[in-house]
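Methods — Computational structure assignment.
A single polypeptide chain was analysed. Its primary sequence is given first, followed by the predicted tertiary structure written as structure tokens.
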Amino acid sequence: MITQDQLAAMAGCAAHTDQGQRLGQVEYVLVDDTTGRPEWVRITDRASGLGGVFVPLRQAELKDGRLVVPYPVAVIEQAPCAALDCGSVLSVSEEQQLYGHYGVRDARDEVNAEGDAGWGVMDRAQAIREGSTGREHSVSRLQRVQPGR
């Protein structure tokens, strides 16, 4: 899992699969505005035509100056926002689609499930749920962060 302290090291770094295939460059990171935990990375590779794709950071690692993600290229290329311009920040519904695509549980369902997940109290997750109910297409719980800034 990528931490807040590692964001600066991600500035412009190359992204690869855990099988060593190059995906492109880190464009920006989306950070959970409640926990401060980096959740998604947008990767772009103009040379291969890979538009901007969002990949979860939960199981990603920084190794030797590269971002390594545990998903094959085929899965990343088929991500819901790969062919669309999801904008700079994901809405709640777009994020839900991506969670399903990658088989990742929503952080709001993992309150205190991870020892250092960043959730201080269970009320935060409930507040996120209540704050987005019925507005999933227009509300986001994420902030765009430019690594290194």
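Note: Residues 118-125, 134-138 have pLDDT under 50 and may be disordered.
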